[in-house]
Amino acid sequence: MARTDFSRIACSIARSAAIVGDGWALLVVRDITLGLHRFDEIQRDLGVATNVLSDRLQRLTACGLLEKHRYEQHPDRYEYLLTEKGRDLVPALLALMAWGDRWEAGPDGPPLLMHHHDCDHTTEATVTCRRCGHELTADTVDYRPGPGGRTAPGTALIAGLL
Amino acid sequence: MARTDFSRIACSIARSAAIVGDGWALLVVRDITLGLHRFDEIQRDLGVATNVLSDRLQRLTACGLLEKHRYEQHPDRYEYLLTEKGRDLVPALLALMAWGDRWEAGPDGPPLLMHHHDCDHTTEATVTCRRCGHELTADTVDYRPGPGGRTAPGTALIAGLL
Q: How many angstroms separate the CA atoms of B65 and B47, rounded?
């Protein structure tokens, strides 16, 4: 599959998109988070073509989100586990899930509920400021060039227009 | 472009992926958030092919994230604005940006810094529990079938295995 190389764009959203800006990749990470670890389990759950699943598992492993772990020998059998980098993506997926619950769930309501161990409640993710703890919204933030910004395609804005 | 219809999967991550699980769509929303509203501006910033940009703008408009607004007549000129639904996606993008900053920025550091008006600090997004305010992590949540769950491809897990 021809893929655009978003990683060349000096933007952390673009770099994230290069890795997970693809529906199947997101759903593979979701399935592994939910407890499915083996190729066959994920394939059956998603109903995804084996070559597509194979490609996404390989790519997510190469990008450091998954590790392939042999759990049985003769014959060798493997499972996929989230790395620290992969596990660290889960909160962003939960933020995406909360958005989907608000805007796409329809009259039936959310397909999946999240239970939080810390407070022992059914809850939803919210995106907050690490400094003050207030909820972040599109209107309460603005953006400034960071140390890793540079003039390149996809960053004209970051480098020059702000 | 042939696209998988993720929206048939009864999962809010899948439904979100159906809309924004695509690098260009994410970057278009990013550009509009950052203040670029016109086709030419976004095209120039991203260096994206015009047919691809056209497709993404149309799809994001059809999905209710953008609205096309005529800002000049004779000749008609249009700009794209985020709707309430589109603006509500921004926090999830900020969570994705924070992940990209942590894992993909490299030695140069983040390309873009976020400034929060409420506390007047450079900050980053964190994903927290709406009930107790603690940070959510992959290990502190589990999932249960919700009212909108059903047995269908992509939801075997939600419907049966939990």
A: 22
Q: Give residue-wise pLDDT tens across range B64-81.
A: 999 999 999 999 999 999
Give the count of alpha carbons within 13 A of A38, CB side only: 9
Full-model pTM: 0.90
Our CA-based measurement puts residue A37 at a distance from the nearest CA of chain B, in whole angstroms, of 12
H-helix or E-strand containing A143?
A: strand A141-145
Alpha helices per DSSP H over chain B: 12-20, 23-34, 39-46, 50-62, 84-104, 156
In angstroms, the separation between the Cα of residue B158 and the nearest Cα of chain A is 7
Nearest-CB residue to A130 (from B27, B85, B124): B124
- A74 touching chain B per CB within 8 A: no
Q: What is the pLDDT of residues A48-97, one digit of tens each?
A: 999 999 999 999 999 999 999 999 999 999 999 999 999 999 999 999 99
* CA–CA separation, A63 and B53 (whole Å): 27
| CA B75 to chain CA mean position, Å | 32
User: Per the CB < 8 Å rule, is A117 touching B141?
Assistant: yes
Judged by a CB distance cut-off of 8 A, whether residue B39 touches chain A is no
CB A111 within 8 A of CB B10: yes
Cβ of A23 within 8 Å of Cβ of B22? The answer is yes
Decide if B154 and A27 are in contact by the 8 Å CB cutoff.
Answer: yes
Residue B93 to residue A44: CA distance in whole angstroms = 30
